[in-house]
Amino acid sequence: MLKPGATIGILGGGQLARMMALAAATLGLKCHIYAPAGDNPAFEVAAASTEADFTDEVALKRFAAAVDVVTYEFENVPARTAEVLAAIRPVHPNPRALAVTQDRLIEKTFVRDLGLPVPDFRAIDSLEDLMEGAAAMGGFGVLKTRRFGYDGKGQAMIRPDTSLAEAWEKVGKAASILEALIPFDRECSVIAARAAHGDSVAYDLCENEHRHHILARTTLPASVPLGLSHEAMAIGETIAAALDYVGVIAVELFVAGDRLLVNEIAPRVHNSGHWTIEGAETSQFENHIRAVAGWPLGIARRRARIVMDNLIGDEAERWEALLAEPGAHLHLYGKAESRPGRKMGHVTRLLPENA
Amino acid sequence: MLKPGATIGILGGGQLARMMALAAATLGLKCHIYAPAGDNPAFEVAAASTEADFTDEVALKRFAAAVDVVTYEFENVPARTAEVLAAIRPVHPNPRALAVTQDRLIEKTFVRDLGLPVPDFRAIDSLEDLMEGAAAMGGFGVLKTRRFGYDGKGQAMIRPDTSLAEAWEKVGKAASILEALIPFDRECSVIAARAAHGDSVAYDLCENEHRHHILARTTLPASVPLGLSHEAMAIGETIAAALDYVGVIAVELFVAGDRLLVNEIAPRVHNSGHWTIEGAETSQFENHIRAVAGWPLGIARRRARIVMDNLIGDEAERWEALLAEPGAHLHLYGKAESRPGRKMGHVTRLLPENA
Fold first, then answer.
1. For B83-129, what is each residue's pLDDT tens digit?
2. What is the pLDDT of residues A45-55, one digit of tens each?
3. How many structural domains does chain B have?
4. Which residues contact A21 (CB under 8 A, 6 or more apart)?
5. Which residues of B touch A319 (CB under 8 A)?
6. Is residue B285 included in any domain, yes or no?
7. What is the CATH number of the domain that holds A135?
């Protein structure tokens, strides 16, 4: 258990690290951000920062020695980086959670082995595998690289008229996974937090809308039966427990009819949980910091109906109108440059529960 | 009007500056903290910091040139400091607000001239003045230095059996003010915010309990009739308007029977407003930053009944129990050293409105 005044090391310098650092500061903890050169808005709110590559073992060791615990804002932390750090300081969530979630095949297998519902899937290591798999799935599926995909990158839709050779090119002929195409009604996510001693909480189920594979809007409550919402929350806590996880975890789910299917696990705070800053009794960022500090979790109760909109690219230019809108909670991430598809901020609106 | 990415310069490096910087970061603004050497926990959450004395004009000018607007966390900014800065960048609240509130005689006169209720007072420049004044007030009063008093320092109670010579010694024979002793029922405060274009908001009236002249607890709603509460809120906005004020202002008041009396003005965010972080739609820190940035204010609506307790000196050692208490919002200020009387943190509890 850390004491106030201790230092949390965070890998990654983007908005998630920034919001973690703000939560840590409220609790009297220091943050040390480690990130490669670039636009790192988290540096601006941290007690210390290291600008170095994730492969720079000298810098990594110096960083680890300067902090009390290490966490991260993104799942693509190289395994060797986690290993170097974990030899010196506790790393939360643990390197196994990273290993499982960095590989879609391992992740899906892990979830299925827990007895949780996942779309049908199979490993694809060659064009032949893809041809076989696509045929077995009736011509429909989604081909995804096993590793390092995000925001729709490294993916190809498979339909009966798709050129499988082209799809195989599109994923760079990398080790991949073919997932059954789920005719889902909605996309949801559950954010859970698990403390070092094993207690966990889950936030209410979020309903998510994507545009161009990027989260555009999260609303709560999700328009699903309450039983399904509770089932999803239990799935989040089950996965966290199975990974012996410490920190905040996000599980993306498809809702198809009355069925839930696990789509993806993110071993970190999540964009669909940004509403918790104003909308929940304890934010996902505070609960992540509490967990990695070895502290008890805060209450995850939701305060209101929620609409959270991402401000992507030039949408952040609406900042003046949003500031003037009563009850709109504007968050800007302090990024130096706006680019299409870049998350620049978000805005959360709390609505009365019965409006 | 500042643009996101602009830099707010803050004089002072304590917890108020720290909480302002956290609010600014959420809105995509940078902060540059200027404070003399010492324990400056605000440095840890700011994009830049300058450690220099308030009399170091070279450092002040460099600081002013590096920021877009200047604000401060405490009212005892030397007049010359404000003048040097104001020649280069806008200073909010304006130097006149500083000048008025740095001198209890000028402050009380200003409030009385607005037609607002203040305790009887008179200037004391000699032991003779004090003898005359004490007699005129029936032997009871509070002697306070005109300048640089806080948390009960530079004050002496006057009762019929008090040695006036000793009281005069106690305030260092400095230019002082004798105020009538008010047999008040409770101490309250009102936090108001005023934007550059003149709009203002006031938070609900706070009821304050002091121990050893230091704020110990703030509760809302104050146990006063609603009419009195609204009158106090109007007083806050009236004073802000009269000072052509930009930012958050706090007005401390005595409640005696059905009367309000203005005790003191603080031209800054205020300890009795810390509950607004979780308890109001927009915190006092966010509204202060919005105002000094030239932005519109956010809604000041209160969300719940509130109890805010300061953690003073070793009270902050209760952090572990507070973290484990459901619904207790713990704030620790990251101060390196705990000392008796030192504000180390606070805890805010939100209670259902009708509990």
1. 999 999 999 999 999 999 999 999 999 999 999 999 999 999 999 99
2. 999 999 999 99
3. 3
4. A10, A31, A33, A42, A45, A46, B45
5. 4, 28
6. yes
7. 3.30.1490.20
pTM for this prediction: 0.95
Which residues of chain B from 265 to 304 reach within 8 Å of chain A, CB to CB?
Answer: 281, 290, 295-296, 298-299, 303
Question: Does residue B107 lie within any of the structural domains?
Answer: no
Same domain, yes or no: A162 and A207? no
Full domain range(s) for residue A167: 120-179
CATH number, domain with residue B78: 3.40.50.20
CATH number for the domain that contains residue B274: 3.30.470.20
C-alpha span between B344 and B72 (Å, rounded): 20
Cβ–Cβ pairs < 8 A, chains A and B: 89
From B336's Cα to the closest Cα of chain A, the distance in A is 7
Domain termination residue (choose one: A179, A205, A223): A179
- Which of B18, B45, B296 faces A323 most closely, judged by CB atoms? B296
ipTM score? 0.94
